[in-house]
């Protein structure tokens, strides 16, 4: 019997992408089968639209929640955006620069670094298979920025949290955090999209693995944390899949009667 869900949201890194940053063939086949079975497919990622363009093309998906809920598109139409206000962002960037800690700004088209030659920045972006960005230290002042990355280690995080209580610092790498509005999350972006579609959170299934997936996994009707996922993500999910490198996505989609 088919699952009554209507739409499936997939995180990218560690969920669709395996440890080699490619999509296993079993996952591609599973998504194609789910679509054939009538489910809407969507991406829910911390990455920006330009960072997932090849993936969207490969999977023929045009609905996505990007920047952890800050930039949401349904079938090519922008339905919701959110961002940290410029004065707060300016405070964070100025404070970081005074400490030798730097940032990357992202909009829907590109990423821009605040400084040249920052090793932590280079190493963190390399895990996403991205080269060192263009540099413009005041890019955020003159452009809409939907996500900012600050390159700090865990030890510095509490300092930033205490000084900037109106934003969230969500860690995605030992050297880097996403900066989100206090009310920002993948769950919020998903909710805005579902309202547009006339669906409820109960109609959604979400698949994820990271700390930035916790709200999403907590909010939807059915949620899956990958076997390779963070313990805190697993703790809130309704189901645990095998490891992404072991075909875990396809396996759990079968178990949930999506395919």
From TrEMBL:
The keyword Membrane does not apply. Keywords: Isomerase. The keyword Cell membrane does not apply. InterPro entries: Cof, HAD-like_sf, HAD-SF_hydro_IIB, HAD_sf. Pfam families: Hydrolase_3. CDD domains: HAD_HPP. GO terms for molecular function: isomerase activity; magnesium ion binding; phosphatase activity. GO terms for cellular component: cytosol. NCBIfam families: Cof-subfamily, HAD-SF-IIB. PANTHER family: PHOSPHATASE YKRA-RELATED, PHOSPHOSERINE PHOSPHATASE. This is Putative bifunctional phosphatase/peptidyl-prolyl cis-trans isomerase. It comes from Metalysinibacillus saudimassiliensis.
């Amino acid at each position: 019997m088919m699952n009554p869900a209507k739409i499936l949201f997939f995180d990218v890194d560690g969920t669709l992408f395996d440890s080699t940053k490619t999509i296993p063939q079993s996952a591609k086949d599973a998504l194609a089968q789910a679509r054939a079975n009538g489910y809407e497919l969507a991406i829910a990622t911390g990455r920006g639209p330009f960072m997932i363009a090849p993936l969207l093309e490969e999977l023929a998906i045009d609905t996505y929640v990007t920047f952890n809920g800050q930039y949401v598109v349904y079938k090519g139409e922008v339905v919701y955006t959110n961002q940290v206000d410029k004065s707060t962002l300016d405070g964070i960037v100025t404070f970081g620069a005074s400490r030798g800690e730097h940032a990357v700004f992202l909009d829907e088209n590109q990423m821009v670094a605040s400084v040249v030659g920052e090793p932590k920045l280079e190493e963190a972006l390399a895990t996403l298979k991205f080269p060192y960005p263009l540099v413009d230290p005041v890019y955020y002042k003159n452009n809409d920025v939907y996500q900012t990355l600050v390159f700090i280690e865990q030890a510095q995080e509490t300092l930033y949290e205490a000084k900037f209580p109106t934003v969230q610092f969500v860690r995605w790498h030992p050297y880097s955090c996403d900066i989100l509005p206090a009310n920002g999350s993948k769950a919020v972006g998903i909710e805005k999209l579902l309202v547009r579609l006339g669906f409820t959170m109960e109609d959604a299934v979400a698949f994820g693995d990271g700390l930035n997936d916790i709200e999403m996994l907590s909010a939807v009707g059915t949620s899956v944390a990958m076997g390779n996922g963070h313990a805190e993500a697993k703790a809130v999910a309704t189901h645990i899949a095998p490891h992404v490198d072991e075909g875990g996505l396809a396996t759990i989609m079968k178990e949930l009667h999506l395919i």
